[in-house]
Amino acid sequence: MSHDFSTRAIHVGQTPDAATGAVVPPIYQTSTFLQDGVGRLRGGYEYARGTNPTRTSLETLLADLEGGSHAFSFASGLAGEDTLLRAILRPGDRIVMGNDVYGGTHRLANQVFVPWGIELETTELSDLDGVRASLLPGARVLWIETPSNPLMKISDIAALAEIGHAAGAIVVVDNTFASPYLQNPLALGADVVVHSTTKYLGGHSDVLGGAVVTNDQDIAEKVGFLQFAVGAVSGPMDAWLTVRGIKTLAVRVERHSANAQAIAERLVGHPSIDRVYYPGLPDHPGHDIAARQMRGFGGMLSLAMAGGADAARRLVESTKVFLLAESLGGVESLIGYPSEMTHASVRGTALEVPDNIVRLSVGIESADDLVADLLQALQR
Ligand SMILES: Cc1ncc(COP(=O)(O)O)c(C=O)c1O
């Protein structure tokens, strides 16, 4: 019997402990496993860089929620991205990447893989003909982040997957902003989904992690080998915390989305704000695509401040409920200044974020309190 997302998020990979009946499976805080004779393993486990039952439970859950055959869990989102790119690229290959992505993802491609002999081209993913042209010289990877960080651009995953495959590229989607509750890129034709599980999946700003999920056997074998051979794995405690977070993903994301929608609608037309970037607003250029490929619009939004960089800095330093901090996707609301925080590494590149942009990760506090906090901060 197949169950709904909310049920699967709580039960998949979570069989109660056979020995004690503990409803919550224990954390297997162990690096190694007893052998009854050389190579005679009791439960298939040998050494925790290879596999650990707590990580297996998270990987089983992630594969299920993204509709993948294989999932791999890593110490951070970037560790997962790095392992994936090492698995599928060889020197001389090209990556075509959206022109609005998390600064660290661009830094990884531009400052780690380009010196390794990879070509990187960034492009506007809403211009499908432009993407087709960029892919033409035989790109190996098409990298999509949707919604994108921080400008909340929406890319048409199904259309881009078709274009990417026609050009022979592997289509990767960073699904961090949406989470698997709102969007499943593999079902839309993508080959690989990556996550910073640090964000909505973990959900409580208390654990770092990353995931790579795929339906492609060949990619899975390569990523699985490198996960073991390089070892950027999540530890048992981190995997367990992430599983615990995922159990409430559905209810959290519903509330994140409702709060973000309320804030976006309230701030549209505010005299201090030039533009509100939120795909749930009907005049957002990606609204129709988002409505088609997502089950909600998520908890992230950005603001372009009419008063420029000074106004943006003043706002991020004046909120009281929204905390000024990097990261996103936790229960608490965070506010950030991308051009000097999450995206400082893309300054001077084509991805440079305008200095009047403020990014909000809307938490699950009271929407009224959050709106009041922003309005008081906007008065300063
Ligand atoms: C969209 C996106 N992808 C990937 C990452 C990298 O994840 P981590 O910080 O867990 O390495 C981030 C981090 O902010 C992100 O926002």
Structure description:
By secondary structure, the chain is of the alpha/beta class. It has two domains: 242 residues, Aspartate Aminotransferase, domain 2 (3-Layer(aba) Sandwich), CATH 3.40.640.10; 130 residues, Alpha-Beta Complex (Aspartate Aminotransferase, domain 1), CATH 3.90.1150. A seven-stranded mixed sheet has the order 1-7-6-5-4-2-3, with helices on both faces. Strands 8-9-12-11-10 form a five-stranded mixed sheet. Helix 2 packs parallel to helix 9. The radius of gyration is 21 Å and the shape is globular. The termini are far apart. The mean pLDDT is 97. Bound molecules: pyridoxal-5'-phosphate. The site of pyridoxal-5'-phosphate (PLP) has 16 residues, from helix 3 and helix 4.
Strand order of the largest sheet: 1-7-6-5-4-2-3
- What's the number of helices? 13
What is the radius of gyration computed over CA atoms, rounded to a whole number of angstroms? 21 Å
Tell me what portion of residues adopts beta-strand conformation. Answer: 5-15%
The chain-level structural class is: alpha/beta
Q: Give the C-level CATH assignment of the largest domain.
A: Alpha Beta
Kindly state the percentage of residues in helix.
25-40%
General form: globular
Q: Whole-number average pLDDT?
A: 97
Instruction: List each distinct ligand once.
Output: pyridoxal-5'-phosphate
CATH architecture of the largest domain: 3-Layer(aba) Sandwich
Going by CATH, the homologous superfamily of the largest domain would be Type I PLP-dependent aspartate aminotransferase-like (Major domain)
Any idea how many domains? 2
Q: The CATH topology of the largest domain, please?
A: Aspartate Aminotransferase, domain 2
